[in-house]
Amino acid sequence: MAPGVSANASASSAGSSRPAAPTTLVIDIGSSGLKAMLLDSAGRPASERLRVVTPAVPTPEALLEELDGLRKLLTNFDRASVGFPGVVKCGATFGAVHLHPLWAKGFPLQEELEKRWQKPVRVSNDTDLAGYGVIWGQGVELVLTLGDGLGSALFTSGHLCPGLELGRHSWRKQGMTYEDYLGRRGLDKFGQARWNEFLASAIQQTAALFNWDRLYLGGGNANKIVFTPGRNVSILPNETGLLGGVMLWRDQG
To answer: How far is CA 152 from CA 45, 62, 232, in A?
Structure first.
């Protein structure tokens, strides 16, 4: 296994056996780590989850080099789904507050990966991708990921309503946003007890705003929730972020 790669099994087992086609390589780009896994045609894990540390200066060039390294460890796939922590339109990135300013200029990530890997690739917002892996596909479903920022994805009858950036929306005080309270800087500034109070208030606010039937709370800080969120609200393990890679292809084409 390459230096810096963590997994639950050896890398050779990750790429040696061939799951039922089409096999999807799913990658989750995070500000602290890059995760990858193979999914079979039914959306079940077909390899262990690999993880490498995100480059300290995550420019497109540096991050693509790490993605190429993960791709070489997981070789037996037909297509790839990539979750990106920012605004994505037609496979290009237009913002990534927790990565690098170069990602905000319409970087053609999908096109670049297809050229490098010679495989079909789809790039979407990371919370959208995670949502595909957890939703029931009925009614209005909202996904919120609690990490360095606040990710959000809205689905109706199993289909994504693209472009939602709730974290950047004004909330509570002038000049403050949902992300200021519920992202990492809110957790560090206000402490865990107040952060939980803000999250409970946000659950009520989003219920009134979206009239969701189900709410899913995920991300790296979901394990810091200390209250019972209530009816039709689920707290997700962090590992679910990769499981929507197959549904991304079904819903969008």
So the answer is: 24, 26, 17
Round to whole Å and give the CA distance between 249 and 159.
Answer: 12
User: Structural domains in the chain?
Assistant: 11-130 (3.30.420.40), 135-235 (3.30.420.40)
Q: What is the pLDDT of residue 15?
A: 47
Phi, psi values for residue 214, rounded to 5°: -140, 145
Backbone angles phi, psi at 33, to 5 degrees: -150, 155
Region of 36 (left: φ > 0; alpha: ψ -120 to 50; beta: rest) is: beta
Helices (H), the chain: 11-16, 60-73, 109-117, 126-132, 178-182, 184-210, 245-251
Strands 24-29 and 79-84, by their bridges, are parallel
- pLDDT-derived band at 200, boundaries 50, 70, 90: very high
Mean pLDDT of 99-123: 96
Say whether pLDDT at 80 is over 80.
yes
8-25 per-residue burial string, b: 16 or more CB within 10 A, e: under 16:
eeebeebbeeebeeebbb
Q: Measure the CA–CA gap between 39 and 79, rounded to whole angstroms.
A: 10
DSSP per position, 64-85:
HHHHHHHHHHS---SEEEEEES
Q: Identify whether 22 is preceded by a cis peptide bond (ω within 30 of 0).
A: yes
